[in-house]
Amino acid sequence: MSETVAEMIPATADLSQLREIAAGCTACGLYKTGTQTVFGEGAPRAQILFVGEQPGDKEDLAGRPFVGPAGRLLDGALEEAGIDRTTVYVTNVVKHFKWEPRGKRRIHKKPNAAEITACKPWLEAEIDRVDPQVVVALGATAAQALLGRSFRVSKQRGQFVEWPAPGGRLVTATVHPSSILRAPDDERDAQLTEFTRDLTLVAKELEG
After folding, report:
1. What is the dihedral of CA 179, 199, 136, 106, to 10 degrees?
2. How far apart are CA 137 and CA 147, in angstroms?
3. 88-103: buried (b, 16+ CB within 10 Å) or exposed (e) per residue?
């Protein structure tokens, strides 16, 4: 855990206060290139908490998670799975957009281990405050941040494992919706079907 971030987080801070404090986070260098901190949002006592890798270009500009193309795909899949987006909490492991220029575009760049470690206390605090029954990792970065670097989404997606920290909650992983958007046209529908099936399993797990 990054001591810099850990020292910024009062034990009594609620989600709203955490969001305000995180807005000034300088624990890693990404604050220099990101437009703003993109903190999580959603139901403050959600049963399901979704964790992605980092905000994208649209999220960086809006200051909100999952509002771009990947977020719209997630919304549609949640609806198909019978999960109301307004009842869940969505966030990312890393709270600033890491990118590299390509012409006039800002292209996503994968955060490194130091950046993930520096930002992880924010995620841990969010999970603690929301106290969900199920945490859903979207993609490899989120899954490995939560469950260790040996976790493989390709082999273990859809499986439910016990949260390694106290709390009695479950963790499961699936792909990040952005990976579906990047898939070849002739594979995208099948991948979306699999993704929706994973979310349906989460809904059924909550139903008992």
Report:
1. 30
2. 9
3. bbbbbbbbbbbbeeee
